[in-house]
């Protein structure tokens, strides 16, 4: 089993353990599309931002693939709703680049926990550098 790293960067709030578990469960839907890709070239970067004046959360997802970065973003009053919307858009984008095999058990999966705070790419721009 190949493990794919992911990290979370937050601004103006702290991601709870419950939110991290929700994100981990949801990102598993991307795994079927990542078969046969070099694992050292894959990384999921999650940016969670809370606008203090409106209470709105913005979630930006960036998935590094070999030679490409796919991105999506969504804003909502609820951070989970924003995350789920951004993930759905990213899943459609990934599927259009590399169709998955329905019903096949993936041999790659995202790690159970995101990388420790402050490690991994801290911005979308640094995804190419890692």
3D structure, described in words:
By secondary structure, the protein is an alpha/beta fold. The chain has one domain: Ribosome hibernation promotion factor-like (Double Stranded RNA Binding Domain). Helices cover 23% and strands 29% of the residues. The chain contains 2 helices and 6 strands. The protein has helices spanning 17-27, 79-97, and strands at residues 2-4, 6-11, 43-50, 57-65, 68-76, 108-110. The strands form 2 sheets. Strands 2-3-4-5 form a 4-stranded mixed sheet, covered by helices on one side. It has a two-stranded parallel ribbon with strand order 1-6. α1 (17-27) links the parallel β2 (6-11) and β3 (43-50). α1 (17-27) packs parallel to α2. The chain is globular, with a radius of gyration of 14 Å. The protein starts with a strand and ends in a 20-residue tail after the last strand. The mean pLDDT is 86.
């Amino acid at each position: 089993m190949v493990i794919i790293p992911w990290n979370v960067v937050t601004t103006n709030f702290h991601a709870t353990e419950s939110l991290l578990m929700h994100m981990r469960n949801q990102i598993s839907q991307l795994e079927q599309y990542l078969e046969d890709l070099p694992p050292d070239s894959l990384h999921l970067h999650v940016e969670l931002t809370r606008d203090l004046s409106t209470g709105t959360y913005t979630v930006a997802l960036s998935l590094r693939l070999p030679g490409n970065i796919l991105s999506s973003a969504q804003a909502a009053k609820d951070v989970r709703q924003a995350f789920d919307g951004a993930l759905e858009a990213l899943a459609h984008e990934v599927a259009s680049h590399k169709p998955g095999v329905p019903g096949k058990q993936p041999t790659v999966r995202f790690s159970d926990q995101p990388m420790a705070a402050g490690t991994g790419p801290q911005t979308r721009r640094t995804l190419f550098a890692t």
